[in-house]
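Why should sequence recovery work at all? Because a backbone constrains its sequence more than one might expect. Tight turns favour small or flexible residues, buried strands favour hydrophobic ones, and helices have their own preferences. The token representation captures these environments compactly. In the example below, the structure is given first.
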């Protein structure tokens, strides 16, 4: 029995990871740090922009102190041009509503970012009241505290909560919270997430069978 489903946002609800990393790759190159899109996604997906800032500086990029805020503005601008929902998301949300299973979103990203990506796809109203951000809760994945905070208002116990994630940090946070984790990996090898304790799925349609909805 599932009492709650917690979604990550980027790469799970919305197909935004590649867009954000394209912006990062282009900007970091301007500071002398040249990484490929694949390398950027491997290093930074599931983290925070502040984490990117610290890592990039360690790798030799001479980033200014205000870089994080400027990078968010660049990413927001690109996302505002258009970002799609991940395939199958609407059908899954509708099914959860039909079955009376509550859901929420827990992200390392700021609320404004989720408002942009979910809002342009008509889904912000579904999540606005049930949204947990590392920027407002002071704890970020891989710390399990973010998922525990998301579950608390619902009174959902960890062993009856399912998290849908796409990153190492997210899976680590979910398993650390004692929650079942489904890792959405549309392409490529999901063994690295399976190794961390996740059940790999390739499409949102598989959630129905996994949760026996």
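From this structural description, the recovered sequence reads:
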């Amino acid at each position: 029995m599932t009492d709650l489903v917690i979604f990550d946002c980027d790469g799970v609800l919305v197909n935004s990871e590649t867009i954000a990393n394209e912006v990062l790759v282009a900007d970091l190159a301007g500071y002398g740090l040249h990484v490929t899109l694949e390398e950027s996604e491997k290093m930074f997906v599931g983290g925070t922009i502040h984490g990117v800032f610290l890592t990039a500086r360690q790798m030799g990029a001479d980033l200014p102190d205000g870089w994080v805020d400027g990078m968010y503005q660049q990413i927001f601008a690109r996302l505002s041009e258009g970002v799609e929902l991940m395939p199958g998301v609407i059908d899954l949300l509708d099914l959860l509503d039909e079955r009376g299973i509550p859901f929420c979103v827990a992200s390392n990203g700021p609320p404004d970012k989720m408002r942009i990506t979910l809002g342009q796809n008509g889904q912000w109203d579904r999540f606005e009241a049930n949204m947990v951000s590392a920027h407002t809760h002071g704890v970020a994945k891989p710390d399990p505290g973010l998922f525990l905070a998301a579950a608390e208002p619902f009174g959902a116990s960890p062993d009856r909560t399912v998290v849908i994630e796409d990153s190492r940090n997210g899976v680590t946070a979910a398993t650390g919270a004692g929650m079942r984790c489904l890792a959405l990996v549309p392409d490529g090898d999901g063994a690295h997430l399976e190794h961390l304790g996740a059940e790999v799925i390739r499409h949102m349609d598989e959630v129905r069978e996994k949760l026996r909805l």
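A few observations help interpret the result. The mean pLDDT is 95.
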